[in-house]
Amino acid sequence: MPLSEFLQFLISGLTVGFIYGAVALGFTVIYNASHVVNFAQGEFVMLGGMFTVFGISLGLPYLAAAILAIALTALIGVALYEFAIRPARGAPVFALIIITIGASILIRGLAQVGFGTSFFSLPSLAGDTPIKIGGAVAQPQSFVVVIGTLVMVGLLALLMRRTMIGKALIAASTDLIAARLVGINVRMIVALSFAISAVLAAVAGILITPISLVSYDIGVLLALKAFAAVMLGGIGKPAGALIGGILVGVGEAMTAGYLSSDYKDAAAFVIILVVLFFFPSGLLGSEHHERV
Amino acid sequence: MNVFNTLRNIVENRASLILIGAMILVLPLLMTSSFQMRLAIVVWVYAMAVIGLNLLMGFAGQVSLGHAGFFGIGAYSVALGPSQLGLSPALSLPAGVAFCGILALVLGRPILRLKGHYLAVATLGLGMLVFMVLSNEVELTGGPDGMQVPRMAILGWKVKGTDTWYWITGIALIIGVWLALNLINSPTGLALRAIRDSEVAASVLGVDIAKYKVIVFSISACFASAAGGLLALYNGHVTPGLSDFLISVQMVTMVVLGGMGSIAGSLVGAALIIILPQFLTSLHEYEHAFLGLIMILTMIFMRSGIVPSIGNAIKRGRHDSNS
Amino acid sequence: MTAILETTGLSIFFGGLKALDNVSLAVRPGEILSVIGPNGAGKTTLFNLISGVYQPSSGQVFLEGQDVTGQEPNKLAGMGLTRTFQNLQVFQTMTALENVMVGRHLHEKRNIVAHLLSLPSVRRQRVESREKAMECLARVDLEQYAHQPASALPYGALKRLEIARALALSPKVLLLDEPAAGCNPRETEEVDEIISEIAAGGMAVVLVEHDMRLVMKISNHILVLNFGRKLAEGNAASIAADPHVIEAYLGLEGDKGETGAVAE
User: Fold this and answer.
1) Taking the model in full, what pTM does it have?
2) Alpha helix (H) ranges present in A116-181?
3) Which of C53, C77, C122 sits opposite B206 (nearest CB)?
4) Residue A230 near residue A240 (C-beta atoms within 8 A)
5) Portion of chain C with pLDDT greater than 70, in percent
6) Given an 8 Å threshold on Cβ–Cβ distance, is C106 in contact with B204?
7) Average pLDDT in chain A
8) DSSP alpha helices (H): ranges in chain C?
9) What is the pLDDT of residues A62-121, one digit of tens each?
């Protein structure tokens, strides 16, 4: 039945879309704090899933492994900032691009050696009984993904608005110099932004692994799709990142379902290219003039 | 300007050409195995592709993460030309170059309106699209297993053997270096450097920014596709892996490691990235990790790359000993 | 003589702010028009609009009678209009001579294939461009820096380098954005001479400057902007005596040359 087919695609699209949204949100947090586009963002997702798998294989209970994985990934995120990005502050854009891509490849390369090239899975957090919705079938983990992501985003919003740290982050993203002048330790704030976005990505990785598995090289495509999401939503806009992610996920699922599953990944690229050419500032973005 | 100055200018501008030419001529005398010669061929080929990328990145200041896309298209054109169009492999090579050049002209206009991260991601996406097409269209391209490339024949003589291909690719590289140096020293080269240093200033002085970016994009595509075609003809086989994202990244690393804006640097970068893994076979698994590490370290500690850094150190040394 | 450069009702909004409001001006060949006003008055914005860097929200720009509103800067350069920059847009990695040679771009043959093959015609042209560029450097007294990287030049020299670069284009209209900023009195004298010379040669010059002595001395015509609007227009004497202008500048104590304008 066409409707149930459509629903099926929609469900899988939404599931993966929320993941893209979470990763895109991480992009946005880092970009807002430091104007760096972190191409290694996708690797954080991979690490979240990988470390959890690894922890469980060492005998740890699921939750403990997950928490450890998230903490480790956050640490790696901060290390990325401290050792790769901060030493190059003030560098031209192309240098920062190359550094974050280099970091992505470094992490990926080490993961390849440490974890091998196979795919790994995690047990679903809500059991395995598929849930029927109007002729379509949803994995219970899909709901975990959506709800989990929303909770995470909600917590982040609370953090940003209600705590001093959050306000400091917002201040730093609005005006770095003014933030410094009022005594905000920018280095810590930016490091924190890397940690936060690593956490966002790691959690996303843990949530999605039961559905789409994890392997050492899922990072690149993920980063690209999250970038597409950010493009759609306008760079620097958290709400836009999440919405953009959902749109990319659904667009991808529809492409796979109705056009060709071979070119599923191409959907995100096409979106990027279309947005770049017709809406250079994103669907929610704004103009800015070069100052001469 | 007296004769001596003119001569010195010519030599300094052509120093790269002379050095590289000399190296290509001398190297076979030092080689002890066919494997080494094969390695040299791969280096010459990548150096050619990287010179093209360097024109784009080093002179026009545009980052491309999809250069391997053109490399792959060039490689597949010498397989598809014979199988689909009945062209000889020898003719398919220039046909592939022309195709890539025109493709770059068409795609260039919209793409090069972008800057910084957006340009990087757009080129990344395009490179991946090429990889996807080459991997998915099994009937046309043989899918992930790739295709055979028929042997090239010139006037009935079958071109084969690592020795022969060493000289063919070596000469091709020299021609590429010559063309690139000419371009750099020409008004076009000056316009490109102006665009890199300050687009707005170049613009008010009459430089058509969009046009020059597209032109250098097209030229760089031609270099990559010629290189890919030559490699394919030598190997006798092509796979989609030639246009993989990782190859694009390797090429970018070769540019920044050797030196952005340095033709000799392109060769040094290519040589290092290709030859070093041969010496560290015990650490072979860490090849990709090392690539990433090199990218990071170069950008932090030696942003202008090896050749320009050495050049600057020499200039400073000369200056110090003069004063 | 008719104006070679004219704007009518030029305006631009930045978000909700009207940065420039209904500015009209006209310059004739050989004339020096100075645009003055407090910081933030919109002077550089005006330049950016005329030179095609920004698109106006309304109004027009005419060059030699042709409507060139919104044209790209390189097209305007092709029609003989170019400019220098307030916060310097020098080509840092090039030598001073190479910087000026870029100004010769439109006068050179731009055949890519000829360039790739380094044909003799290209080499001959390079020699010619070099010579012309050296002449421009000589005009601003910078020949000794010809082969030095631009990044090594002192600030005052860089300001003159931009002028030399613009002159290499052989423009009909030259917009100079604060050419004497940060210059000592001797350097300002030199800039004064250069500008007078090129205007005497028939070029129309539009000048943005803070140095009132320079402005009062060499301008044929002065336009005063404040809050993006035309405050006053006229020759040096009438501007110096204009009560609105004096009021706009009140409170800017300590700025050299300002008291000179008010007192004269």
Assistant:
1) 0.89
2) 140-162, 164-174, 176-181
3) C77
4) yes
5) 94
6) no
7) 87
8) 43-50, 73-78, 96-102, 112-117, 120-139, 155-167, 185-200, 212-218, 236-241, 243-249, 258-263
9) 999 999 999 999 999 999 999 999 998 888 888 999 999 999 999 999 999 999 999 999
CB atoms within 10 A of CB B135: 20
Question: Measured between CB atoms, which of A105, A262, A276 is closest to B249?
Answer: A105
Q: What does the DSSP assignment read for A259-291?
A: I-STTHHHHHHHHHHHHHHH-TT-SS----PPP
- CA–CA distance from A279 to each of A241, A285, A290, B296 (Å)? 15, 9, 18, 32
Between CA C123 and CA C116 the distance in angstroms is: 12
Q: Do B187 and C105 meet the contact criterion of CB atoms below 8 Å apart? A: yes
Q: Rounded to the nearest 5 degrees, what angle is found at the Cα of B193, between the Cα atoms of B191 and B198? A: 95
Residue found under tokens 């996303």: A204
Distances (CA, A) of B303 to B237, B256, C1, C94: 37, 7, 55, 18
- Straight-line distance from the first to the last Cα atom of chain A, in angstroms, rounded to the nearest whole number: 59
Distances (CA, A) of A43 to A7, A224, C113, C149: 30, 11, 45, 42
Facing A104 at nearest CB: one of B290, B292, B294: B292
Q: Give the integer Cα–Cα distance in Å for C61 and C20.
A: 14
Residue-wise pLDDT for B169-219, tens only, equals 999 999 999 999 999 999 999 999 999 899 999 999 999 999 999 999 999
Q: Which residues of C touch A289 (CB under 8 A)?
A: 14, 54
Interstrand relation of B153-154 and B157-158 (parallel, antiparallel or unpaired):
antiparallel
Report the distance separating Cα A92 and Cα B125, nearest Å.
22
CA dihedral angle for residue B74, residue B75, residue B80, residue B86, rounded to 10 degrees: 80
Using a CB–CB cutoff of 8 Å, tell me whether C82 touches chain A: no
Q: Supply angle C-alpha C252, C257, C262, rounded to 5.
A: 70
- By C-alpha distance, the chain A residue nearest B64 is A94
Q: Which two tokens stand for residue B121?
A: 């991601």
Q: Cβ of A110 and B289 within 8 Å?
A: yes
Residue with tokens 């784009």: B56
CA dihedral sign, ordered A277, A281, A285, A287: negative
Q: Which of B97, B204, B214 to substitute to test the interface with C, most C CBs within 10 Å?
A: B204
Contact by Cβ (8 Å): B56, B220: yes
Which residues, listed in sequence order, are joined to residue C199 by a DSSP beta bridge? Answer: none
Residue A198 region, left (φ>0) first, then alpha (ψ -120 to 50), else beta? alpha
Q: Quick check: C145 contacting A, CB < 8 Å?
A: no
Chain C residues in contact with A290 by the CB 8 A cut-off are 53
| Contact check, Cβ <8 Å, A292/C44 | yes
CA–CA distance, B284 with B278 (Å, rounded to integer): 8
DSSP per-residue letters across C76-90: HHHTTEEE--TT---
CB contact under 8 A, C116 and B208: no
Instruction: Please answer yes or no on whether C14 and A292 come within 8 Å at the CB atom.
Output: no
Task: Establish if B210 touches chain A: CB-CB under 8 angstroms.
Answer: no
Residue A23 near residue A226, CB atoms below 8 Å: yes
How far C114 CA sits from the closest chain A CA (Å)?
31
What ipTM does this complex have? 0.88
| Separation between Cα atoms, residue C203 and residue C171, nearest integer Å | 7
**What's the pLDDT score for residue B321?**
64
Residues (pLDDT < 70) of chain A are 1, 279-292
User: Tokens 């395995």 label which residue?
Assistant: A128
Question: C84: nearest CA in chain A?
Answer: A292
Contact A289 C54 (CB under 8 A): yes
Q: Specify the pairing of strand B153-154 against strand C5-14.
A: unpaired
The model's pLDDT over C101-138, given as tens digits with 9 standing for 90+, comes to 999 999 988 888 889 988 888 889 999 999 999 999 99
